[in-house]
Amino acid sequence: MSERTLRGDFENRAPSEHPSRWNDLWVEGFTPWDRGLPSPALLELLTERQELLPVSGSTNTGKKLKALVPGCGKGYEVLLLSAFGFDAYGLDVSEKALEFAKEYEKEMGSQEIYNTREGVERGKVTWLCGDFFTSDAFKDVKDFETGFDFIYDYTFLCALPLSLRSKWSQRQNELLAPGGRLMCLEFPTNKPTNSGGPPWALPPKIYQALLPRPGVELKYDDEGVLVESELGPTSPNGLTALAHYQPKKTHKAGYDAEGKLMDFVSIWGHNDSA
C-alpha cells in the first residue's frame, strides 16, 4: 500500500472543496503539517532581530500591536506572539483545528516557551474561524479597519493552489497595516516545481514575484517553473522586501536529506512605511 500524502488527498478537488477537506483531515488526525511547537525562526525574530519588527502607528496610540497567523492550526505561533505582547489572532478555516488550538492553549499555554519576558504584558488571544479571503472571517477583530501590525505566514501559501496565489498577495497587502511587517517563513524551497501539492513548491522567487505585484496572476511553464521573463513591473502599492535571510534554526521539515537548512525568512512592508 502506498504512503498517504496530502497531494493525494487534494488531487482532482476543486479549490472550493479545499476548506472542508482541511477540516476533514483535522477530524481524521492526518496532519503532517503540524510541527508540534512554535517556529524557531519566529522566536529568533522576536528575540534577536527586533529591528525587523513592526514600527506601526499603533504604538503611538497606547494600543497593543495586532498580529495575525493565517492557517494557524493548533496555534503555537499565536500563543508565542501573545507572550511577546501582541494581541494575537489565530485564523483557520477548520473548526476542528481551532478546537485543538483552544485545548492546547488551556493545557500547554503555561509552558516555559510561552512565558512573558520582563516588562512585557501578555496580549489577548483570539481564535477566528473562516476564510482568509473574506471580511466575515475577521468580524471579531477589534479595530479591523486599521489592519494587522504583524502577519506570520508559514505552511499557508504552500497549501493554496496556484490559482489562489494572486488573491493571497492582494489579501496580505490589504490586511497589513501601515508600518506593519509580514514575515514569510519560505517553505518548501527545494521541492521540485512539477511535483504538485499541497504543499506546493515555493522557491524564494515566488514570494519576490507575488508580493510586489498584489493581485497579479503569475505565469508558469509546463514544469511549474515561474516564467520570470513575463513578469510585469512592480506595483507602487506592492509590498517591499526589507530582509531576506536563512534563520539559525527551523522546523525539521525545513532541512534536506543531508541536514542542510533550506528554509528562508523574508520580511515585507508597505512602500510608504518601509
What does this protein look like?
This protein is of the alpha/beta class and 274 residues long. The protein has two domains: 64-142, Rossmann fold (3-Layer(aba) Sandwich); 151-274, Rossmann fold. Helices cover 24% and strands 17% of the residues. It contains seven helices and seven strands. The protein is globular, with a radius of gyration of 18 Å.
Sum this structure up briefly.
The chain is α/β, with parallel strands linked by helices and 274 residues long.
N-to-C CA distance: 52 Å
- State the fourth-level CATH superfamily of the largest domain: Vaccinia Virus protein VP39
User: Would you state the CATH class of the largest domain?
Assistant: Alpha Beta
At the fold tier of CATH, the topology name of the largest domain is: Rossmann fold
State the total count of DSSP E strands.
Answer: 7
Count of the separate structural domains: 2
Low-pLDDT regions: 56-60
Coarse shape: globular
Based on secondary structure, the structural category is alpha/beta
CATH architecture of the largest domain: 3-Layer(aba) Sandwich
Largest sheet report: 7 strands, mixed
Keywords:
274 residues, Rossmann fold, seven-stranded mixed β-sheet, 7 helices, 7 strands, globular
Per-chain topology:
Blueprint: H1 6-10, H2 18-28, H3 40-48, E1 66-70, H4 76-83, E2 87-92, H5 95-108, E3 125-129, E4 148-153, H6 165-175, E5 176-186, H7 204-210, E6 239-245, E7 264-270
Parallel strand pairs: 1-2, 1-4, 2-3, 4-5
Antiparallel strand pairs: 5-7, 6-7
InterPro entries: SAM-dependent_MTases_sf, TPMT
Pfam families: TPMT
Organism: Coleophoma crateriformis
